[in-house]
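Supplementary Methods. Inverse-folding protocol.

Structures were first reduced to a discrete structure-token string of length 562. This string, shown here, constituted the complete conditioning input.
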């Protein structure tokens, strides 16, 4: 994990140094700057390869300069002479331009300067963030939204509508008005002299052709290759072992001994099924396994710092507990973390996947299947602020790489999930919490070769369900379960989905002290028009309770206004 910062103005190092203060947690091992008459760059380094001297950035290749955050797993395929991936990326961009990024396996946010032209880019799945603002003199960009020199923090009401309906903000918008993010796979080419931009995407020349025959051996080989490719660098590793099929497959093929999971108090059996399975696997495989106990007290104690680390609220009722787990991994010496995120959205793993209809528009189906119903949203007092289905469809069509869509409608919907919820909820949470503690998060299943292979398998195969009495429609994960039988333990293969989540019903409804503290946080006035934006007295549902608490905490910390 590193931090990158830049301004499309020359000789602005004082400003760059101030920006780097916001990203120093991302890169605690070193920092450096570079400037000319067109751009100013700053970089905070997390040295995954161990050699700080060779890894320092900005990195100059001939008359070009690169600042890079991420990890490239196949860089030696292109330039075997380089041990460090940053050097290979700089050479590839120098000789081939942005099209070089299409073939890379890994994750990145980067800025590359050559001959008066700037390239900004984000990886295929949006693992690494990159935020920017347009200024009178060009652009300012950073890994941290808080580094962008804003004079005030005003709420973007359309983005707020997205947050209220999904719990995250997909696409190029952020909750802060006038502040944007690169979308997954997006490339911006910026001319520093004319100030003109050209936007493309690494997905632009690909589309899903759903005609593959399924081979269990080919699936296993592809999965194993994807996971083992991500094993680069020399720093200590740790795996988020949830007890589910995806994180278990990562642990099996990665052959890493350090694993971590969470247990929840009170000890309700159904909320610790995953932890029990994770412990069984750890015992069988001989892992160095750590159980992290999550209670209402430590959840609440970490809530505010979790929102500071996130920089923008993202709804998931377990969010503060993920922050706690990341801190425990760092305390154990971990620098590189691994998880199984993305598997459900490739194989089908949620009840919602059985709810997709078959309209002619995946965005419309995504809205109908995923968006929270009106009674489950934060209740705005001005109904004109509600975002309707067509407004959502139009917004998605304005940025999403829809050229990728094939003839399989459910696979198209799964791709929408990957570049929205997975990117802006799961991956963002991991990136921000990991970087807050100076760690780098990796997602081995999000290997573009393996992903493209899985997404060309007809969804009718993925949706097979041999046990409808045990598994809801959409969550059986037939493709992975059938292929990994005999490879993973039966107690993993046959385990119903339970989810890695706090016992909300017990905490919200029976833990009075916890409830009182959360309600106080939700109803505490901000002293501006946002107090009249929402009926904060009605934030008591399973979603609104936590979404409101997270939003109000962030709003207060950032002096948010309308």
């Amino acid at each position: 994990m590193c931090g990158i910062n830049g301004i499309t103005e020359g000789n602005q190092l004082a400003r760059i140094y101030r920006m780097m203060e916001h990203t120093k947690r991302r890169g605690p091992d070193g920092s450096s700057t570079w400037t000319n008459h067109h751009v100013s760059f700053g970089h905070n380094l997390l040295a995954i390869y161990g050699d700080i001297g060779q890894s320092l950035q900005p990195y100059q290749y001939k008359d070009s300069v690169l600042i890079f955050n991420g990890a490239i797993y196949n860089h030696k395929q292109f330039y075997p002479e380089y041990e460090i991936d940053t050097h290979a990326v700089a050479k590839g961009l120098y000789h081939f331009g942005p099209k070089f990024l299409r073939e890379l396996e890994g994750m990145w946010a980067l800025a590359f300067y050559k001959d008066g032209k700037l390239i900004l880019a984000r990886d295929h799945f949006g693992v690494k963030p990159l935020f920017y603002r347009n200024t009178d003199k060009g652009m300012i960009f950073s890994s941290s939204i808080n580094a962008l020199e804003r004079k005030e923090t005003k709420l973007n009401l359309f983005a707020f509508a997205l947050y209220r309906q999904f719990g995250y903000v997909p696409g190029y918008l952020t909750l802060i008005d006038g502040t944007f993010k690169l979308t997954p796979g997006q490339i911006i080419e910026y001319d520093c002299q004319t100030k003109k931009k050209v936007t493309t995407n690494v997905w632009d020349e690909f589309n899903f052709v759903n005609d593959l025959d399924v081979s269990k051996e080919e699936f296993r080989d592809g999965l194993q290759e994807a996971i083992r490719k991500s094993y680069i660098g020399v720093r200590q590793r740790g795996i988020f072992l949830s007890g589910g099929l995806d994180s278990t497959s990562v642990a099996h093929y990665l052959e890493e001994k350090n694993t971590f999971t969470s247990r929840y108090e009170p000890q309700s059996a159904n909320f610790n099924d995953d932890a029990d399975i994770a412990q069984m696997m750890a015992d069988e495989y001989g892992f160095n396994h750590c159980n992290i106990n999550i209670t209402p007290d430590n959840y609440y104690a970490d809530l505010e710092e979790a929102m500071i680390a996130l920089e923008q609220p993202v709804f998931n009722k377990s969010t503060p507990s993920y922050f706690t787990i990341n801190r425990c991994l760092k305390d154990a010496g971990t620098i590189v973390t691994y998880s199984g995120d993305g598997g459900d959205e490739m194989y089908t793993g949620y009840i919602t996947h059985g709810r997709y209809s078959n309209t002619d528009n995946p965005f419309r189906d995504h809205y109908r299947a995923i968006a929270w119903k009106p009674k489950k949203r934060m209740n705005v007092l001005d109904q004109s602020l509600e975002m309707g289905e067509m407004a959502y469809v139009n917004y998605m069509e304005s940025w999403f790489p829809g050229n990728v869509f094939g003839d399989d409608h459910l696979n198209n919907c799964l791709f929408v999930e990957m570049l929205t919820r997975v990117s802006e909820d799961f991956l963002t949470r991991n990136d921000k919490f990991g970087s807050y503690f100076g760690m780098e998060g990796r997602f081995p299943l999000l290997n573009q070769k393996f992903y493209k292979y899985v997404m060309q398998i007809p969804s009718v195969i993925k949706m097979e369900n041999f046990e409808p009495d045990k598994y809801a429609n959409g969550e059986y994960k037939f493709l992975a379960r059938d292929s990994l039988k005999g490879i993973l333990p039966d107690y993993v293969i046959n385990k119903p989905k339970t989810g890695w989540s706090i016992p909300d019903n017990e905490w919200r409804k029976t833990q009075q002290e916890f409830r009182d503290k959360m309600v106080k946080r939700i109803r505490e006035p901000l002293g501006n028009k946002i107090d009249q934006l929402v009926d904060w007295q009605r934030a008591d549902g399973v979603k609104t309770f936590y979404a409101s608490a997270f939003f109000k905490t962030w709003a207060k910390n950032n002096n948010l206004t309308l």
